[in-house]
Amino acid sequence: MSGYTPEEKLRLQQLRALRRRWLKDQELSPREPVLPPGWLGPVDAFWQRFLQPGGFWRHQVRPPLRRRGDTILETGEVMPPLADETSGHH
After folding, report:
1. Is the residue at 36 inside a domain?
2. Is 1 domain-assigned?
3. What is the dihedral of CA 38, 43, 49, 53, to 10 degrees?
4. Fewest CB atoms within 10 A around its CB: which of 14, 16, 43, 90?
5. Would you identify the family this protein belongs to, as annotated (predicted)?
6. How much is the pTM?
């Protein structure tokens, strides 16, 4: 007698179906993961508002210094490098 009995074949088929269903259940849908909205404490809420783009504080801080030869990431513009000075000092 070689091979599986009908009961063993049925059991193996059921196990394969269960494994396939389990694997399919492990895939995340576009709605997952669904997380509850987190409550921010007073300090975290302050920093959340403070760091938003276009906030008041960003208008008060001076823009960063741009050196020659640097690339501006937002526009891709390259600042031309300064000419070498050969004054002999240092």
Report:
1. yes
2. no
3. -100
4. 90
5. Belongs to the complex I NDUFB6 subunit family.
6. 0.35
